[in-house]
Write a structure and sequence with these properties.
By secondary structure, this protein is of the alpha/beta class. It has a single domain, classed as TIM Barrel, CATH 3.20.20. It has 12 helices and 8 strands. An 8-stranded mixed β-sheet has the order 6-5-4-3-2-1-7-8. Helix 3 links the parallel strand 2 and strand 3. The mean pLDDT is 95. The structure holds iron/sulfur cluster (SF4) (2 copies). One iron/sulfur cluster binds next to loops.
């Protein structure tokens, strides 16, 4: 038991258990064209950890058995993995719904000219990082020039029908600039729609809000600034039991670039593989053992249960 599980026990839950594997999230590698201050996996242009084709082949076999609702590709910048297109084609060919988490700016990198069309051709759902509709806030988190590139990428995607046609999903992701909780998702979505629409004529499908996790580069920055304890206190004090049912670890499995298995992307960032007797590598995938596994938890889990809750799919409960 840890502090998080103590808190769960107070609302009647003994530990945290998965109930199914609706989504397989695959981390294709830690290389990224950006180096954002809030990155929880410490991705950067200097990282060279990348998923190999044999691991991807294994995931295709596993997904054939597990039939998840969604296969979600993340990184780093998943598009920078040299096997990205082959992997997408293999998953698409098996009839899976595939989602790609894109930082948007990567679509303007050299050699990416045909990527947007490729994504459209395979009806890939996109989740694009856009931490604010204001330039100052985006550049503070993601580096100078990131805003202009993100806007250019969104216009390009809109021109292909992404975020406009109902079959071409383009969701945007917001995260706060500092150690505070995200505002209400529905209200913020209305603000994004108005601001991006009026300023640039940009459309999108939905806005997803996520909390910053107190780990990785963001956690390290807070520690340096002496703000980590206060942020942890905010997360603990904001515990919302209504978020527990929807916690993403209960409905997904995360595969690291080297094939190791995790309950979520945050445990991946911390190097906490699945445990409690469940197989911890894709080579030993076992649907029954993994679908009902007990989740590995820690203090960082309070980042998912604070306020309206937080997950890769956005808020988990109405704002409190
Ligand atoms: S937050 Fe996303 S875009 Fe930024 S460095 Fe990390 S993986 Fe790259
Ligand atoms: S950090 Fe991961 S394991 Fe912890 S509650 Fe969130 S999704 Fe679950």
């Amino acid at each position: 038991m840890n502090t998080f599980e103590d808190r769960l026990a107070q609302v009647g839950a003994k530990g945290l258990h998965a109930s199914d594997i609706e989504m397989i999230q695959v981390n294709l590698g830690l290389k990224c064209n950006q180096e954002c201050v809030h990155c929880h996996v410490n991705a950067s242009p200097h990282r060279d950890e990348m998923m190999t084709w044999p691991v991807m082949e294994r995931i295709v076999i596993v997904a054939r058995k597990a039939r998840p609702r969604l296969v979600d590709l993340t990184g780093g910048s998943p598009e920078l993995n040299k096997h990205f297109r082959r992997f997408v084609e293999a998953l698409h060919g098996e009839g899976h719904t595939v989602q790609v988490r894109t930082n948007l700016t990567v679509l303007l990198e050299p050699d990416m000219e045909t990527m947007p069309e490729f994504l459209k051709e395979h009806r890939i759902q996109l989740v694009g990082s856009m931490p604010c509709y204001l330039e100052e806030n985006v550049c503070a988190q993601r580096g100078q020039g990131a805003y202009a590139k993100s806007i250019a990428a969104l216009k390009l995607l809109n021109s292909l029908g992404y975020g406009i046609d109902s079959g071409l999903v383009l969701n945007l992701i917001y995260n706060p600039a500092g150690p505070i909780l995200p505002p209400g998702q529905a209200d913020l979505e209305a603000d994004y729609r108005r601001e991006l629409g009026e300023r640039f004529g940009i459309g999108f499908s939905n806005l997803l809000t996520i909390a910053n996790m107190p780990i990785g580069r963001f956690g390290g920055t807070l520690e340096e600034q002496g703000q980590l304890d206060r942020y942890m206190e905010l997360l603990r004090d904001s515990f919302n039991p209504c978020t527990v049912e929807g916690l993403m670890c209960r409905h997904q499995l995360s595969v690291g670039w080297d094939g190791r298995l995790y309950d979520c992307d945050f445990n991946l960032a911390l190097g906490l593989t699945v445990d409690h007797g469940a197989p911890d590598h894709i080579e030993h995938f076992d649907l029954t053992g993994l679908a009902q596994r007990r989740v590995v938890t820690g203090d960082h889990c309070f980042g998912c249960t604070a306020g309206q809750g937080s997950s890769c799919g956005g808020a988990l409960a109405s704002n409190t």
